[in-house]
C-alpha cells in the first residue's frame, strides 16, 4: 500500500492510498501511524554536503585526479575522464561525458559512455544522500549507477540510469528524478519532476511531480495520470515482509 498527501487550499491536507499497481485509489480519514512516524528514506542525489566540499584542498587542474568509482562487487569501474580538446566536455550539457569509461574489471574491456546505447550526456554520478561514498544501486539482478546532466535554463537538470547489466542508459524523466532504493527488492522508486506541464482546461502550465516504480528491466509504473498536472508532496510504502518495512519520501529533507 502506498500512502500520499494532497495539499488543498489554505494549507489543508488530505491523505490518500493506492495499491502497488497504481489502482484502488482511496481517501483516508487520517494518516496511518506508520506514515506519521516514518522518516525520509535514503535516496540518490547530486548535492554534496558542506563538510565534503569545505575540506577539499585546492588543486590545479593538472593535479586533479580523474574520478573513478568501483562497484560494490568489484566487477566494474566508472572513470569520469574528460577530453580537454572536446568542446562538449567543457560545459555541463548534452554530449558532455562521452569519453567517460565503463571498465569491466573482470575482462579488462573498456567502453566509452558515448558508445553505450541511450547516451545523451553525463556530468556526475549521483550518490546516496546518507552515504556519499555509495554511488551504485545493486539489488539482485538490478545493477545501476545514476548520472545527472544539465539540459538548459528552461528544462533544468535530468537523470539517467546506467544499466550495468544491459549496458544502456535510460532517462528517468524529461526533467529531474530522485531515485529511492527499495532494499530487498530488485526495483526502485523515483520522485519525478516535470516542468511546464499544460493544465487541462486552461492555457496555464505547472511544475509537476509524481512517483514512479521501476523494476529490474527498467519498466516503470507511473503513479499519476498521463497528461495531468500532478502534484506530489511525499508518500510512504508499507512493506510488511521486508526490511525496512516502510519507505518514505518527501519533497523536503526531513
Layout of secondary structure:
Elements: E1 2-7, E2 13-18, E3 26-28, H1 33-37, E4 44-45, H2 50-54, E5 68-70, E6 76-79, E7 101-104, E8 110-112, E9 127-128, E10 136-139, E11 142-152, E12 156-163, E13 168-171, E14 177-181, E15 187-198, E16 205-215, E17 220-222, E18 234-238, E19 246-250
Antiparallel strand pairs: 1-2, 1-18, 2-3, 4-9, 5-6, 6-7, 7-8, 10-11, 11-12, 12-13, 14-15, 15-16, 16-17, 18-19
Provide an overview of this structure.
This protein is mainly beta. It has one domain. It is built from two helices and 19 strands. The strands form five sheets. A five-stranded antiparallel sheet has the order 3-2-1-18-19, with no helix packed on it. The mean pLDDT is 90.
Short structural description:
By secondary structure, the protein is mostly beta strands. It has two helices and 19 strands.
The helix/strand series, from N terminus to C terminus, equals EEEHEHEEEEEEEEEEEEEEE
Instruction: Kindly name the structural category.
Output: mainly beta
Poorly predicted regions: none
Biggest sheet, spatial arrangement of strands: 3-2-1-18-19
Q: What can be said about the biggest beta sheet?
A: 5 strands, antiparallel
Helicity, as a percent range:
under 10%
Radius of gyration over C-alpha positions, nearest whole angstrom: 20 Å
Q: How many domains would you count in the coordinates?
A: 1
Q: Based on Cα principal axes, name the global outline.
A: globular
Report the mean per-residue pLDDT as an integer: 90
C-alpha termini separation: 22 Å
Query: How many β-strand stretches?
Result: 19
- Enumerate how many helices there are, as a single number: 2
Strand content: 35-45%
Amino acid at each position: 500500500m502506498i500512502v500520499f498527501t494532497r495539499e488543498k487550499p489554505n494549507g489543508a491536507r488530505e491523505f490518500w492510498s493506492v495499491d502497488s499497481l497504481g489502482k484502488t485509489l482511496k481517501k483516508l480519514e487520517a494518516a496511518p501511524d506508520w506514515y506519521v512516524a516514518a522518516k525520509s528514506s535514503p535516496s540518490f542525489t547530486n548535492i554534496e554536503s558542506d563538510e565534503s566540499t569545505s575540506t577539499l584542498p585546492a588543486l590545479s587542474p593538472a593535479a586533479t585526479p580523474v574520478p573513478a568509482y568501483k562497484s560494490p562487487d568489484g566487477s566494474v569501474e566508472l572513470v569520469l575522464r574528460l577530453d580537454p580538446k572536446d568542446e562538449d566536455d567543457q560545459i555541463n550539457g548534452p554530449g558532455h561525458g562521452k569519453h567517460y569509461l565503463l571498465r569491466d574489471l573482470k575482462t579488462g574491456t573498456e567502453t566509452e559512455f558515448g558508445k553505450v546505447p541511450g547516451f545523451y550526456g553525463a556530468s556526475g554520478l549521483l550518490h546516496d544522500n546518507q552515504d556519499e561514498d555509495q554511488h551504485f544501486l545493486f539489488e539482485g539482478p538490478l545493477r545501476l549507477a545514476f548520472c545527472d546532466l544539465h539540459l538548459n535554463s528552461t528544462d533544468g537538470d535530468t537523470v539517467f540510469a546506467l544499466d550495468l547489466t544491459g549496458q544502456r542508459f535510460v532517462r528517468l524523466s524529461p526533467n529531474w528524478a530522485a531515485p529511492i532504493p527499495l532494499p530487498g527488492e530488485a526495483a526502485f522508486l523515483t520522485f519525478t519532476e516535470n516542468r511546464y506541464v499544460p493544465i487541462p482546461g486552461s492555457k496555464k502550465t505547472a511544475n509537476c511531480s509524481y512517483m514512479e516504480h521501476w523494476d529490474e528491466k527498467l519498466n516503470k509504473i507511473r503513479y499519476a495520470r498521463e497528461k495531468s498536472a500532478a502534484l506530489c508532496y511525499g508518500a510512504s510504502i508499507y512493506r510488511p515482509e521486508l526490511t525496512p518495512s516502510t519507505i518514505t519520501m518527501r519533497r523536503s529533507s526531513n
